[in-house]
Amino acid sequence: MSASLIGRRGRVTGTVRPGHVGEVTLPLPAGGTHAYLAHPADGTSTYPEGTRVIVREFSQPLTVYVEQDVQDPRYPNL
Length: 78
Fold this sequence. Notes:
The protein is mainly beta.
């Protein structure tokens, strides 16, 4: 499953920021969603709840490293 998480888009459900564990929900291939522990991929960014993100790395069992999804309509200039 790890390879299938890379590149998957999801939404922040618990603020992701440096030095803290955030939460991201990602859609499952069979339907529904699953929550993952999350950290900023660059180690410096903060993503508030509701931000759309994309998974850049995955660490077993349930940790993802994310960056903001540039297709997030709230940030059209990225």
